[in-house]
């Protein structure tokens, strides 16, 4: 009597759509074995796709058959050939493997005597039909998903910073997820400034609560979904392009383009900054007074606590106590603190200076419009050269693609100008107010805030000679305010001196030399 293993396979969609239940297959196979007097050794249940033979229970069956060299089994029975495989190439290879072990696979509802050559044609039809069905289904799904992408829908698991949602009518979409979306906004802003490397920003974002690996973070910051666009991948003769998405963007297109320029090296980098300890806020901003190298910082362990130093990485031996260096910078910042009495007057002077320089023109917007005209002119010239056969159509396509990319970036900047007009009055009032208490603001700020103040106040590195800080450049607004403050204080001192030198009969009553007027 022949021995057989019964192989029963279904997939979830087949059970729902076609009714291929395991119980139904089992009844048909057991009845067939009973009629044909075949001994059933075991029944194998599989819930897996038949696209490949990389199925858990099938692999167990194959491993056991190879181990025993097929001595305990003569047949593997299933209802139809699509239960065996939906890939003709893999099916022929597996049949050769089983035949080598002396095992015959057979579909009881589509029986074939494979010793007859003509039956192999029927076998090819039985195996090819489910494969064609699979391919057609996959193609329909692909075209459906591509159509949905063109409509601006995100057709995958939500990217970092978003979460999958479903409306009341069953329509799926992605929505911002806190706190990840806020952390990503912060990451994009820091990347656009080119102050820190992407790895440093990822580490801080991870500490803030962004749950993603470094590679996923690097992929995310290249994804246009964050400024509201969906990528349509290249397919056949259709090039890849972007469409407006139906989801809420996290950042502006201009910010995204600035980040890409910074990552690709097209944006001038002022020098990658480094993360620093709270006790060493000046790390990376100081130059050695002996060899002009950048000073680093570290801690030395004492008996009871750590002592922090700024020191040179070379052998020159330059070394300063961090406490003295930090205190000297605070003293330096006090020189730029503006007296509150002059705040309103200083603001008016700065606004007048700005208006005299720019004459009220929107220089940024005007520059962008000029660049747009240049790109359109370039495209027009390239079109004329192609029409006169001076350049090939392929070269024109390359020029057109490059020009369209540049135009998209410029139009994003123009849109940003329209949405975020510069309100100089408000900005200057805030800036002057900050400079009035810059020393106190620095003293109370956290480490990141201190480094931001240093970087904005001093565009170039600082020299510390052991007592005070020196630099060749200072922020233009801070320098201008310092000059105005010094000038106003000088005029006030001169006025007091002149008033005290007046005869008693000219001096206002009750005002003695050296007293202040109320």
Main traits of this protein?
518 residues, alpha/beta, Rossmann fold, Hect, E3 ligase catalytic domain fold, four-stranded parallel beta sheet, disordered C terminus
**Assigned CATH superfamily of the domain at 3-137:** Resolvase, N-terminal catalytic domain
* Helix run count: 18
Strand elements, count: 14
User: Low-confidence stretches at least 5 residues in length (pLDDT < 50)?
Assistant: 504-518
Largest sheet: 4 strands, parallel
CATH topology of the domain at 3-137: Rossmann fold
Class derived from helix and strand content: alpha/beta
State Rg.
38 Å
Estimate percent helicity.
40-55%
Outline type: elongated
Order of strands side by side in the largest beta sheet? 2-1-3-4
Q: What is the CATH level 1 assignment of the domain at 3-137? A: Alpha Beta
| Amino-to-carboxy terminus distance | 121 Å
Known CATH architecture of the domain at 3-137: 3-Layer(aba) Sandwich
Strand content: 5-15%
Q: What would the average pLDDT be, to the nearest integer?
A: 80
